[in-house]
Amino acid sequence: MNPIQGNVSIDAQNIMPIIKKWLYSDKDIFIREVISNACDAITKLRMVDYRLAEGCSVRVEVDKAAKVLRVIDDGVGMTQEEVEKNINQVAFSGAKSFLEEYAKDEDKENSGIIGHFGLGFYSVFMIADKVTIDTLSFREGAQAVRWESEDGMAFTMTASDRTTRGTTITLYVNDAEEEFLNYWRVHEVLDRYCSFMAYPIYLKEIKDEDVKVSGEGEEEQTEEKAETPINDAAPLYVKAPQDCTDEDYKAFYRKVFHEYEDPLFWIHLNVDYPFKLKGILYFPKLKEQFGGIEGQIKLYSGQVFVADNIKEVIPEFLMLLKGVIDCADFPLNVSRSFLQNDGYVRRISSHITKKVADKLTGMFKTEREAYEGFWPDIHPFIKYGVMRDEKFAERMKDCLLFKTTEGKMLTLEEYKRANGEKLENKMVYTSDAARQDAAIRLFTERGIDVAVMEHAIDVNFVSYMEYSAGAESKFRFCRVDAELDSLTSDEAAENIDSEMLTGLIREAAGKDDLEVNVKPLANEAIPLMLIEDEQTRRFNDMGRLYGRSEFSMPAKYSVVLNARSKTIRKLAEREKDERSLLLTRQLVDLAELSRQPLEAEKMTEFIRRSMEIVEMAAQL
Ligand code: ADP
Ligand code: MG
Fold this sequence. Notes:
By secondary structure, the protein is of the alpha+beta class. It contains 22 helices and 21 strands. The N and C termini lie far apart (about 115 Å). Adenosine-5'-diphosphate binds next to helix 2 and helix 3.
């Protein structure tokens, strides 16, 4: 053929410099683009005749000495006309509007998603000084064509010496991007973007020796790294669920997420209608109780990696899961505005939520024991999801469990049924079972279940549960040390000088208006308790949770003196003196200590006073 020269398109003059200037982050996306094109070329061949595509593969060669990266496929190839049409007359319109939008975004606030925006074949010019395409179409009588360009704008087309069907893209990597001549760097990028692509991909490093001493001895042969594909062309999620074993799921999880620990359970998504959606969502084990749980949801489109953790597709609360989702109709190049305005994206998202809820409620109904076993690990996501997503909450509302201090797992209804006679429309809970042990016992000794709500999310969750029960229901959560009505209301304190004790406590605490109640408690061993108003305390807990303790409200608490306690009775009988004040101060501090650590100054005083009491005891 006669050499043809030309310019790619009018727009390219404007676009190419912008591509180079703006898309500095995630340049590695070019690898995804050329390799997905190579896979597409094989798929096209397969559509012509599936037998032709058998054994087809993509080969990537890193040639450091020549400063060249090659991507070679044996797909359909292109005729001269096809190169003209597909490469030279590119429709940059989509890219153009994207880039305009991106250029406006001064803060690069969207860079997470922007980085994943590919520009198709032309993205290679982000890293290459020169690019050639050598291609031979599968069509009979086709002539091999070589296309060459240095800047993605001006090109030449000549005859190529290629003799086999397919396409070779040769990238002359520019000096600034020489990382892409490093075998392991390229390997890493392939792992990220191409690990599930549908045809085998081989990566090979071309060594100097390969050229110089080729064919000499076995040594060189074993050095070749191209024997096994770097990808899994048939990842587990594309298989039918009935063909996958538990071990398959676990192995896939370990491999894809580099995890050593097995997941708790998983959901295999496999939908054809109304949209194509495949994937596996894993529920990981909680690593540490209060630590953050970091999930990862990888999004693919037709086995090509698109991005991690796209919150428009995966409901935010499910970001705590790990998994892969493949939406075949999802474009590779996603822009924020597409994600936000697309009904398709919203439908995917709500479908995923529904599937997760179905799995959980199904387990609750048919495998209650297993569900209870998972609960300690999964409850944070479920609670979070319930608070974030109304539909999810509606589906899950009867499957929420409350673990009691005695290890029972009860739904709200079950709790009410078991305790309703002793508690009026209430659930008693502890936020710290060890510290609040004394108060917990006041309830458990009377056969009342105490729910353990120790996770950070529970601070919000109790309020949510009350709110969602509706104002008319008057249902309340009540911390064990927030209210003793249910324990004390029946009996009045007799034969004890309440007035005297009230004065003593007020003086010891240094608060004239302190509310003091003298009541008989079930447990004699507790002399004194601090009761903090549930709402005020919750407000302050919330503030602390969000690091805004400067807005805290003054703690509203009252003191309950146990009329059954021997110590209290002794104090009531005694004339008020230094010693009874000293002991009362100690009791107040002990009660406070069982709620929270003492402040430094109080702690020092507490220790000093304890010494004094020890000395007093030693003298007796
Ligand atoms: P897209 O893949 O979205 O169509 P690209 O810019 O990635 O856009 O590629 C443009 C076109 O160039 C492709 O649609 C295809 O027709 C052609 N092409 C690119 N690479 C190859 C290849 N390796 N083999 C055959 N055709 C190719
Ligand atoms: Mg492409």
